[in-house]
Model the fold of this input.
Amino acid sequence: MILGVRADRVDMAGALARIEALIEQHRQRGGPVHQIITVNPEFVWEARKNLPFRETINQAALVLADGMGIVWASRILRCPFPERVTGTDLLPLLAERSAARGYRLFLLGAAPGVADKAARILQQHFPRLQVAGTYAGSPAPAEAPYILGLIRAARPDVLAVAYGAPRQDLWIRQHAQALGEAGVGVALGVGGALDFLTGRVPRAPRWMQRAGLEWVFRLMRQPRRAWRMRVLFPMGALVWAQRFRGESKHDRLAGA
Done:
């Protein structure tokens, strides 16, 4: 738990194995969709004041450490995550796994035409991939009946939603039962993954990604992100405070 927000200690291989198990579980038992969330420091900061968002994260089937700030926080709390698992990296690997296992994929969100292009790129890389459908749309309540109708007709196993947080995650949670009844085993918010996949937004060089410096690249290209990233400093201070509170509690218990 990082400032009251959950994240799971899994690497990419573990995440893919867990997602596959959730899909198979849904195929056998049905029920509401299993929700996957990738968290970064902005998610944690928003969730501190946004109770529905915090509950959505904490009740999800799987919560992955997308942001490097989450990995740093886990180290401060002496519960280090094995690696960063980003939605951008997860989506193509999940598409590859879906192609191998016969799972159907639906891409929802992003700007008009982006999901279509992303689907074509994924199918070029993984010719056996079944793309059940694509649609841009929006998380507006008025659009929900139409979107859910498309998904019911497509019967995908995996739904990737690119509406940005927290809208994409709240949308999935709100419609969890309907999505499950439409055959969706797993739904995950992927934020800007479709933009990165299609080249609409360039991604940091691999060496920066490996070094945990992707945030620097994005900040250089989009200086306005500095306003969003301002949460890192107060969040860091609160994480250190959480660690010291935990250590103090441990000391009191040990001396009792």
Residues 12-244 form one domain.
